[in-house]
Structures are given as C-alpha cells and as structure tokens.
Amino acid sequence: MSNTWVVATQPAIGSLLELGRARGGDVIVVAVGDAAAKAGGGDRVIRVEVAAGTPLEAVAPVVAAHVDPQPGDVVLTGSGSADRAIAGAVAARHGLPVARGVNHVATDEVRVPRYGGIAEETVSLEKAILLVVDAHGETEGEAAAGEPAEGDGYAATISGIDPGTSQQANLPAARRIVACGRGFKAESELQLASDLAVSIGAELACSRPLAEGSGWFPRDRYIGVSGSRVAPDIYLAVGISGQVQHTVGMKDSRVVVAINSDPQAPIFTQADYGIVGDLHEVLPALTAALGR
Amino acid sequence: MTIVVAYKYAANSQDASVAPDGHVDWSRAKEAVSEYDSVAIQFARHAAAAAGGDVVGVTVGGAAAGTPNARKGALARGLDRALVLADDATSGWNATATGSALAHLVERIDGVDCVMTGDASVDEGAQMIPALIAGHLGWPCFLEVRAIDRTADGWRLVQDHQGGTRTVDVAGHVVISVATDAVEAKSPGMKDILAAGKKPSEDVALAEVQPADVTWDVVGRAPAPTQARRRELFDGADAPAELAAALKTTGVL
Ligand SMILES: Cc1cc2nc3c(=O)[nH]c(=O)nc-3n(C[C@H](O)[C@H](O)[C@H](O)COP(=O)(O)OP(=O)(O)OC[C@H]3O[C@@H](n4cnc5c(N)ncnc54)[C@H](O)[C@@H]3O)c2cc1C
Ligand SMILES: Nc1ncnc2c1ncn2[C@@H]1O[C@H](COP(=O)(O)O)[C@@H](O)[C@H]1O
Q1: Dihedral through CA B137, CA A226, CA A58, CA A139, nearest 10?
Q2: Is the pLDDT of residue A218 over 80?
Q3: Number of independent structural domains in chain A
Q4: Are residues A185 and A56 in the same domain?
Q5: Phi, then psi, of A262 in degrees rounded to 5
Q6: Is residue A208 domain-resident?
Q7: Pairwise CB contact (< 8 Å): A88 & B171
Q8: Least CB-CB distance to A57: which of B14, B141, B230?
Q9: For residue A57, is it within any domain?
Q10: Gap from B178 CA to chain A (nearest CA, Å)
Q11: DSSP-assigned letter for residue B238
Q12: The ligand 2 atom nearest the CA atom of B125
C-alpha cells in the first residue's frame, strides 16, 4: 500500500490532503511549526517543533530525516519559499525526483507540467516522487497531537520583520480580475484599470514586471508560473503581451478578454474577446459601456 | 571568500513549440544565460565587492553550455571564472540529479561561503534547483533574498516574506536564490565580452561528477491541456460597446 506524505508549514493544506486522498493509502502529515500543527485530516501526524524566532527553513534537515518515503509513496509540499527550501532537503536526502505542480493524480501515475507549463508528462509512481504544489484550503477534523520529531536544524534566527504595507490579496478566489501589463507606462495610468475594476467588482492583478521592477503592485498580485494561479469567471488582460510565463497562471479562466494595441500580441490567441486598441482610449469607454 | 553562482544556459519556453505527441521543439528558441541568473551574478558581484572575494560560476547543461559563446556570455556578466559541465547526457536529468551535480561542482571549489542562484530558470522555471543544491550540500537554503551581508560567523540576509521582508541571520554556509529585482542586471558591453575571453573556465567531465541516481519513468507526453478560445476581435470606435454587449450575453458580467 502506498502512502502520501504531506509536509505542512501552515494549516491550510486542504489541497494537499485532497491529492493524498485521491490516491488512497494513508496520509501522513509532517507538521512544521506551531501554525501547521493546527491542520486536521491526517491519518498520522509527525510534529517538527520550530523554536520562536527561528525560520522554518532551519528545520529542513529534521523534516528530511522524518519523512520516510517507500517505493510508490508520494511526498507533497507547498510551494511557498520555506516549503521549497524544505522540499529540496527532503528530495536530496531520499533521492526523490521532483516536479513542480500537478495536473492530475491517480493511484499509479501523475501528470505534471514541464517547461513553464507548455507541456505535460505522465510519470509512473512505481518509485517515490516529491511534488511541489500550491497549498490552500481549510482542513476538516481535529488535529492529532502527533509524534514529536527530534533532531538538529541549522543555526538561523529571524532578527527583524517588516510586514509591508499591502493587504494580502486572495486572487485565486477572485471571480473577476483586471490584470495590467507593461502597456501601462506610468503608475498614474493604473487609475484607468482601477476604475474598470471598481465598476465590475473585479480584483486588480498584473504581470510580473509591474510587481517586480516597477513595484507598482505587491508581489502577491502578479499572475503566472512564478506568481498566482487564477481561474476567475472573467480575466481582462490589459497591455499584457501574453508570454507563456504569464498565461500559464490564467489559462483556466472561464472567459478571457484582451486589450492590446498590437494585433499580433500572443495574448489574442488565448482570448475569447479582444479589442485591438490603445488602453488609454479603450478603458474609459469600456468602463462607461459596462456601467450602462 | 568565494561566492558561487549557479547559472543555466537555456532557451525561453515561450519560444518552444509542443507537437501533438508532446515532443518539445526547441529549434527556434535561442539559448542564453537564463534571464534571472544575470541578476544573481550581478548581485553576487556586489556582495563579493563588499566582503572582498571572488565570484565563480557553475553550470550543468548540454554541449551548448560549453561553447565559447556560452562561456563568454556568462563570464561577461561578472564572473571571475567558471566550472562547466557540458554534456548532452544531462538533458534528461531530473532536477534532483542536476542539483546533486551542481553541489559536486561547488565542492570542487575551495572556500565557498555562499551559493547564489536566479529566481527561476527560463526553460523549467520550477524554482527548485537552489533548494536541491542546498539539500545535497547539507547547507541551509533561503529563497527570494534581496540583500546580503557578511557577519562574523555567517550571513545576514533580507528575504521577501509574506508581502513584506524579514531579516535572517544564518551561521556558516548558505544557499540563496536572488529576488528578480534585487539589483538591475545590465547587459554586458563590448569591453566585458572581450575581457571575458581572457577569464578562465574549467571543464568538468560527467564521469567526475557522479550525480545522484535519481530517475523517473515518464510514461506519456502531451502538450499542456488548453481551452479552446473564441478569439473574437473588435476594433474601431464602437469596439468597447460591442465588447460590453458580447460580455453581457455570455452571462459572466
Ligand atoms: C523564469 C521566468 C519566470 C517568469 N514568470 C512570470 C510570471 O509568473 N508572471 C508574469 O507575468 N511574467 C513572468 N515572467 C516574465 C514574462 O516572460 C514576460 O516578460 C512578462 O509576462 C511580460 O509582461 P507584460 O506582458 O506586461 O509586458 P510586455 O511583454 O512588454 O508587453 C506589453 C504589452 O503591452 C502592449 N501595449 C503597449 N502599449 C499599449 C497601449 N497603450 N495600449 C494597449 N496595449 C499596449 C504591447 O503591445 C505589449 O503586447 C517570467 C520570466 C522568466 C524568465
Ligand atoms: N542546469 C543548471 N546549471 C546551473 N544552474 C542552474 C541549472 N538549473 C537551474 N539553475 C539555477 O537554479 C535557478 C532556479 O532554476 P529552476 O529550479 O530550474 O527554476 C536558476 O535561476 C539557476 O540559477
């Protein structure tokens, strides 16, 4: 019987448990730190203590020593930066191949995305494998007290935290999204997108260069292979060219609308509706037309 | 003090195409030093200048990674020298095997204090290699780092964290990935490229590296599943009104 190991760094691991349940076998949760210990739903729980003021990354070797994957087992971790740091330690210690993301899980095989999401491979689960996937969703049931995991981590301490000013966005839950790209040349022009978003009750999002580089958006608002994955009812891409690193993050949207001045922009091939035009003219007119 | 930067010579998956049988055709995609790895090299350059040390590149790739142009491209971005494992046999490797080979390259270099990588490679983009290198070396790993300073016994780093940042003190060695906007990577000029031709780069043979024996059985390949789109375009002065009408009939608005 093959089992699933879930490495939790926070309590919202519903999506990971669901993947484990879909395979059958036991789900063994390795809860890293106090927050993760609140997650319910595991058949067995192993608790890795993290001292106050210690980053989760520091206990990576302790986690690696307590995950014990047998042939056919799957190890699941979240995709946050601490999760990935821990995943690397687990995979290296146990010689597990690693895939980022998963399109489908069955008892004996998984389908994983490759090359930034342009292709998909089906991998046999005869050997053990580690999958790094987005962890979200509440869990049900009481959290078990768990077996304590002993061991020494790395020497690291958090000596300061700057929480930032922005509120955490929850784009994966958004039903409507207006996303801005480099077609916006100045921060003040974003007002045009914001007006449209307000008029249809949409969340604002962006391509990566607008979050990293120009810094007009917080990092949790960019969509794509390294950012958030979203699947709203409607996704309006404004001044976004449609590079694959962006579109993998929004391709599951129900209806895609593109506004771009370049008729050759790749985004149009992935859109249901498009306007070829200058966003400075199109956005105010569209906001007005939708408001009617 | 020595900082190692792991850089990948790769092509952008935006320029690849996928056949119906899942075969990925890279023939129209041009290989280069992966975009964000230039940021890591520049970042390492600053850190080495502040702490007094040199910057050594390591790479694992196909034969193309060993061509003079590939070497110069990397060295011109600010490396002092490089260790290159260029062998087409590496192309089928899983990230865990690549990570172990990179860790071996790091171990061949004396006095390494820190390994830096880019945020993501331009072809795979899985953001896993730094953690795998760290796992194989037995070093701590911190991702999305935007500032780093040498301390008496290790490093103090500023890491992106939950919409803000946090400062972490690490004793001893560390592997980090560099935030994409930590510094600006300027493209190398003619002078840099000429100078790069004189910088040393050493080849390491596959047999010397012995990567972790990590295999996976791929039993099927396919293009990524996509949805069919309507591709209805509007232009001209009435386009916004036409789009608004079309959206209302879909029922999504
Ligand atoms: C490893 C890696 C990972 C990456 N991960 C991500 C990711 O997760 N998410 C992401 O978004 N990107 C990511 N990128 C970057 C990605 O490759 C593209 O560079 C980026 O998505 C481009 O953003 P853009 O479309 O806003 O800008 P551009 O590609 O510059 O496009 C701007 C568009 O605006 C249009 N335009 C210009 N002026 C106007 C106007 N007045 N009105 C209307 N349209 C106008 C132009 O025609 C153009 O199509 C990644 C890159 C790498 C290498
Ligand atoms: N084959 C490789 N050789 C050297 N460095 C690599 C290689 N693959 C990945 N890296 C480094 O690891 C980072 C993350 O890569 P990836 O995990 O593929 O997204 C890259 O930005 C590089 O710095």
Answers
A1: -130
A2: yes
A3: 2
A4: no
A5: -100, 115
A6: yes
A7: no
A8: B141
A9: yes
A10: 12
A11: T
A12: 19
Per-residue pLDDT of chain B (253 residues; tens, 9 = 90+): 999 999 999 999 999 999 999 999 999 999 999 999 999 999 999 999 999 999 999 999 999 999 999 999 999 999 999 999 999 999 989 999 999 999 999 999 999 999 999 999 999 999 999 999 999 999 999 999 999 999 999 999 999 998 899 999 999 999 999 999 999 998 999 999 999 999 999 999 999 998 999 989 999 999 998 899 999 999 999 999 999 999 999 888 8
Q: What share of chain A is helix, strand, coil (3-state, %, to 5)?
A: 30, 25, 45
Instruction: Report angle CA A10, A127, B61 to the nearest 5 degrees.
Output: 85
Within 10 A of A56 (CB to CB), how many other CB atoms are there? 23
**Pair B127, A83: CB distance under 8 Å:** no
Instruction: Give the homologous superfamily in CATH for domain B2-208.
Output: HUPs (3.40.50.620)
Q: Residues 6 or more apart from B39 whose CB is under 8 A from it?
A: B118, B119, B178, B180, B181, B182, B183, B184, B185
- Report d(CA B230, CA A175) in Å as an integer: 20
Give the residue among B70, B16, B77 at the shortest CA–CA distance from B42.
B77
ipTM of the complex: 0.97
Instruction: Tell me the HSE value of B18 on the side-chain side, using a 13 A CA sphere.
Output: 21
Q: What is the rounded CA–CA span in Å between residue A68 and residue A70? A: 6
Which protein residue has the closest C-alpha to ligand 2 atom 18?
B121
